Fold this protein.
Amino acid sequence: MNGGGVDLSAGFDAGSGGGGQSGSEAGGDAGGDSAGGAGQQPAATVPGPGTIVRDGFTVNCVAGTPCDPNLVVSVSDLVNFRAAAPTQQMEPHGWSVVGLPTNFIATAAVHTRSGALLGFPAEVRFTPVGFHWDFGAGEGLDSAGGGASWAALGLPEFSDTPTSHIFTESASRSITLSVVYSAEYRFAGRDWRSVRGTLAVPATPLSLVVAQAHTVLVNRECTAGASGPGC
């Protein structure tokens, strides 16, 4: 308290002497001798390793902690966060006809998980960015989306779709799907920051039988309104 005023000093080193002692406390008379360099500014403080400067204040920050603006997080660091597995289905269900499209549909959504990241409480948000089907026999499909049913697309059965596949041989197949997620993280509700790399998460495989189909006309022709393989 000096002359009725209040002198508040912040506990930060701003490199400008702010928050230090008053002139009378630091060296006696504020008018000091001219040789002492009255009014001379102290030398600027150069931030050392492990510090960041915000709004003129130098704040200690250990590299690799949440306050580090240069922190890099990779998918390999997300050991405490499990992304949701996608689901898949197919049309027709469990079987396919040689030479006709089989429609595959995958479902995955944006979701958030909480846990410890690099030893600190954090949130990780997973976003699906790609889908990969493995149909066996060296055949596969990559898609940016998970597809939709024929009904949802307004298409008749056995229509070609962005996520359909045509099998050329009779066989029993196991269909595997993986969804590719990108990820973001944040500490204490701060802004989301990108995680380096992507993560592939598999779905439960589907089993199907691929077989030949032969059309047999009974009572009426396909043109009379019948639907199904071969019509």
Summary: The helical segments are 23-27, 150-153. The chain has a mean pLDDT of 80.
